[in-house]
Amino acid sequence: MTLNKLLVAMLTSVTLVAGAAQAAELSIVSGDTGTGLEFLRGQLDKFEADTGNKVTIVPMPSSTTDQFGQYKLWLAAGNTDIDVYQTDVIWAPQLADQFLDLTEAAKDVVGDHFPSIIESQTVNGKLVALPAFTDAPALYYRKDLLEKYGKEVPKTWAELTATAQEIMDGERADGNAEMWGFVFQGNAYEGLTCDALEWVKSFGGGQIVEADGTISINNEHAAKAIDLAASWIGTIAPEGNLAYMEEESRGVWQLGNAVFHRNWPYAYSLGNGADSPIAGKFDVAPLPAGDGPDARSAATLGGWNVAVSKYSPDPDAAIALALYLSSSEVQKERALMQSNLPTIEALYDDADIAAKQPIIPAWKEIFQNAVPRPSAPTQVKYNEVSSMFWSAVHSTLSGNGTAAENLEVLEADLTELKGDAW
Amino acid sequence: MTTETLAPSARAAAPKVKSELMQQRIRAARLFLIPMLIALAVVAGWPLLRSIYFSFTDASLSNLEAAQWIGFGNYFRWTVLESGTVRYRGLLVDPAWWNAVWNTVRFAFLSVLFEAVLGMMVALVLNAEFKGRGIVRAAILIPWAIPTIVSARMWGWMLNDQFGILNDLGMRLGLLSQKVAWTATADTAMTAVLIVDIWKTTPFMALLILAGLQMIPKDIYEAAEIDGVHPVKQFFKITLPLVRPALMVAIIFRLLDALRIFDLIYVLTPNSASTKTMSVLARENLFDFDKFAYGSAMSTLLFLIIALLTILYIWLGQVKFDGGDR
Predict the structure, then answer these.
(1) Which sign, positive or negative, has the C-alpha torsion B39, B45, B47, B48?
(2) Pairwise CA distance, residues B113 & B311, whole Å
């Protein structure tokens, strides 16, 4: 009797274990901001229903610099707990060894994506990650305020400075003491590299390190751009802007306390959300241009991808999840709900997206002309290059030395870091 | 047992009865210490030795096995250029590192100083007899009980330049003429970190000092009272000398803690040179940059600096951990 019971119990537990082995348990990391985690959960629920696999989200800090340090540590330790990583567009060369090659798994869908994005995620012929969405920032502006003061949307940074100052002064005189002219990402982290690269490029100052590996940052156009940005702190931008990342700057903007705001497209749907005080009162435009011979409007290329850890105990299920998260279906949902830019060209002609998120079709051209950060030429040293750059810019913004002085030191540091070759 | 006869001659010279008892006790003590020593060796000793080893190699985090021994290159090396000029490189001549050392030492000195003074005041208050003393003693520990990351985030919002409560209060009370970006600007960021750290660790200091205060016999004060000694004089002539051993030990605990400050600064302030400490810089090199060996050299030097300062403190302050100088 008891022996029989024991046998039955043992058999049941064996079947339970076998059943569990068929349905994989996956983990994905996400440092998404705003309503991103909620959105991801919704998409994963669909994936779970379709495949029977279970996916857990491991939330991460929103700073991409913080995320990178953690991921690098986990991957170096061969961590098997995380199967799928969400990776920034700049990470592919630095983490390529630790991710599975997705060329074979994605061969049917890879042609749907923009070739330049696939190329950015390919290291020595290995497809390191599949694109989930791409990013190119926008200048958010308050159309009601521009209308009130009879101003045009600024085409140059000088115009933006003047307009921001005038509207800010006017609003403050009207009793709105909290009003600021312009908020952006000024904390010393990867986001400042993005913002500052846009200023430098828009003044014709190059892109820090050029595609052939030359260090180009120490030039008068770059210095002029960064000096102009330094003049904003304490005048049209709050001093606290020196500590703002995306979400802090969006906080000021979305409370209705800024005339202009530089951010990625995700802030578009959040700004138009039901609880947003500025819903319907703002619009987006390309970032302003600088002045000088090579002046243009410049947007830093961003974007996130999904990569599969080579230490994943269940690589097939993990690859299926990565393919799902980069699929046209999820990207369309993402575009509709999160206003993230798709990486699949066909979605830019989608009628639903155009109706709900007009920023997306309008942004196709901007992201196609976006400036890449110098992660390709500087390879594994990119993070240090970026850190040196943002430190030099942060010092200038904080009033420690002029841009010309700091860029000269930066050039010397970069040259030493480069050594014989990157 | 027969082995006991092999005891060293020095011990044999001691009275026999005590010797046997003592030896038994020492054996038991050693036995009880073994698990702790093993645990310490595994979680502290081994990683420390690994870090020191890596600091003499060219290790990269993506391939630790391939690390090659390069000697002192991460600490100090020089190259002679063709023109004949000598260029010195390495951690010992890295201005970023010495800036971080200065930030750390300055932070540690100021925070421990304020915490000791405030902790002493709090402890004196708590040592007095009053109603509800138990509740106050428990309540004062709350800042210490909150995890640092949580309190750093909480203070981050309170210090926020736009919607922070401190700026709001300051403006309403007329203390501030305009909102201050406490954590963002170089001149106030360190002050903000100090405020939060002092808020957080004063209770710990107060608790250790309070334990020392309660060891002081009451009759000394009674005698002083009868002799008409002024309370201030009582404090400097009786309380302070008698509580000194406890105070010195409390300070050393805090000093060790403050010298490796990481979480508060990492969470609360921008990653700028004005607040970067040794630990923050070491982490950045270890994980964010492809410089695992250089970061290991920083960790090793951090360890040596803390060890050096601690030895100096114990030596100069004549700290005795057995409380025997009373």
Answers:
(1) positive
(2) 18
Distance CA B186, CA A233 (A): 13
Closest Cβ opposite residue B61 in set A70, A72, A243: A72
Share of chain B above pLDDT 70, in %: 92
Kindly report the nearest CA distance between residue A333 and chain B, in angstroms.
33
Mutation pick from A248, A398, A400, A420 vs chain B, by most beta carbons of B within 10 Å, is A398
Q: Tell me, yes or no, if B289 comes closer than 8 A to chain A by beta carbon.
A: yes
Is A257 in the same domain as A389? yes
Residue A422 sits at the chain B interface (C-beta within 8 Å): no
Are residue A264 and residue A329 in the same domain, yes or no? no
Residue partners of B76: CB distance under 8 A and separation at least 6: B88, B89, B90, B91, B92, B93
User: Residue A397 is part of a domain; what is its CATH number?
Assistant: 3.40.190.10
From the list B97, B90, B74, B98, the residue with the least C-alpha distance to B297 is B74
Please tell me which of the candidates A75, A252, A384 has its beta carbon nearest to residue B162.
Answer: A252
Q: Do A296 and A186 fall within a single domain?
A: yes
Is the ipTM, as predicted for this complex, more than 0.85? no
Instruction: Provide CB contacts within 8 A for A90, sequence distance 6+.
Output: A190, A373, A375, A382, A386
Whether the model pTM is above 0.90: no
Q: What is the DSSP letter of A288?
A: P
Contacts of A187 in chain B (CB under 8 A): 270-271
**Contacts with B, A 182-201, CB within 8 Å:** 187-189
The answer on A126 and A222 residing in a single domain is no
The boundaries of the domain holding residue A398 are 138-300+375-418
pLDDT band, residue B317 (cuts 50/70/90): confident
* Residue B162 to residue A65, Cβ atoms within 8 A: no
Q: Tally the domains of chain B.
A: 2
